[in-house]
Specification:
Blueprint lengths: L2 E6 L5 E3 L8 E3 L3 E8 L3 E5 L9 E9 L2 E4 L21 E5 L12 E7 L3 E4 L14 E6 L3 H4 L20 E5 L13 E7 L4 E5 L18 E5 L6 E8 L5 E5 L7 E6 L6 E2 L17 E4 L13 E5 L3 E3 L10 E2 L4 E6 L8 E5 L13 E7 L5 E5 L8 E2 L9 E6 L8 E5 L7 E2 L4 E3 L2 E7 L5 E11 L4 E10 L12 H9 L22 H9 L6
Parallel strand pairs: 28-35
Antiparallel strand pairs: 1-4, 2-3, 4-16, 5-15, 6-7, 6-11, 7-10, 8-9, 8-11, 9-10, 12-13, 12-15, 13-14, 17-25, 18-24, 19-23, 20-21, 20-24, 21-22, 26-27, 26-29, 29-33, 30-34, 31-33, 32-33, 34-35
Length: about 525
Amino acid sequence: MSLKSHLVVVAAGCIISASLLAQTTVTTEPVGFTTTSCLGNSDTYLGIPFTRPPEFTGTVQAINGDTLTINGSPGWAGNQFVYATGSQPKHYYVLIGNGGASNPKEGHIYSVRSNGASTLTVDTSFDNLAGVAANTKVTLIPYWTPATIFPPTDAGTSFTATDSPPTYKTELVIPNTSSAGINLPPTATYFFINNGSNVGWRLEGDNTTDHGDDPLLPDSYLIARNNNGAPTLPLTAVGRVLMSKLAVPIFASPTQQQDNPLTMIRPVDTTLDSNGLTPIDTSFVQGDQLLLFDNTRAQIGKQPSKTYTFNDGWRLNTDNLDHSKDIIPAGSAMLVRKAVKAGGTTVYWSDTPTYIPATFLIPLAVGSRKLHGSAGSFDTNIPASNGLGIECRTAGSGNSHQVIFTFANRVTLSNATVSHPNGGTGSISGSPVVNGNHITINLTNVSDAQRLVINLLGLSDSAITNDFSVTMSVLLGDVNSSGVVNTGDTNLCKSQALQQVTSDNFRDDVNVSGVINTGDTNIIKQQALSHL
């Protein structure tokens, strides 16, 4: 992809329009543009690395179900943020910012359904507002649309109009973000018609209805398809630089792999180890895949050019080298293919801009590592919160476990300790081993059915120094991470009997023999009703 990024820093301040009687307060942020070559006779995968200009920034006074009451007196007209054909062409979302001692919804976005003079009622069908506290920052932003990314006046400049459907010139293919499975068909395909009397963005199959105002997800990508003689043309995306965290939902399935089309709202190139996809928050774990696309190669029906996994660092599927410093260009499309996950739980990718200085050092991953015979080593992920990292496999000699911390860069460490807030035993054997961007903690005398806390003291990457703690749960036989050993674990293990041990099913190999068989199910049965 030929792409250049330009940022223009605008002095921060508040712009209050007297004519709107203080209806809208806008805090200015950096703006910029990117330019991408959309190749002829090809698909170009596009992420828009900006937001549209925010139209209000304020703070929350109170939360009542799905309604946010805003501090001050915005003085909004009723439903002025609700789309109305012909009179109000914008769809809006609310971005939850920082605020409160603990804010589990920072970075989450919610579509606006209605508004009052100082209230915003949002769509909580897939997410709720639980945990949003008073004085939390909120920002009101319009969605991108086909007509704002590719304005009708840019026909012939950034895209080619169609004059004789169904011979389409430039098409906008929208990936599927809601259906289950992989290699999903698109949810919509747009084209721009101009045959004299009929002008505007249309959905294929409907040559008359205007769809230029249809909202497009800010954290997903679209595909610009130039065919039937449509030439290579540059797309210039102009917008505001997001200066805060964005929490992007990533879906998983309990029965199959699941595709998630994503993009980063950052107008800068980013290394893999700073893209925010990490095992530490379960957004990307062992067994998941990150697929990227090559926009320099002309092809319609383009397949991914690179497939990455995370295994003690970022790896390409074509070799076993560490690719953590590989670059993801600004505006890249990213397809996260989640592995099968018990319960199909949705996780959130914390997309925090790299141009905002970090204030706390945290690992990319923490894993309890064990060798499964000839199948190789596999890590049970230990996330930074929720205590969901349950080690279900048999301990080694002396009830030992080995925990590996992986960081983006080289680190140093003053000391490490283990604590047992709810009882249990376990201690560190020897000194922590610090090797580049890895820290290895060897644990011994670890009792079963407990949560223990591993504390790294004086952790530093030369720029930031802090302590870091992670909770590791130990429950032999709890292969489905429910917190109790029961028939659910036995049945899951039986379903994998005699299967090759992989990153998808290694937890079922409870005795780490390299084979899933009756030896594993017998251990689970012996531990029945054991719980955390």
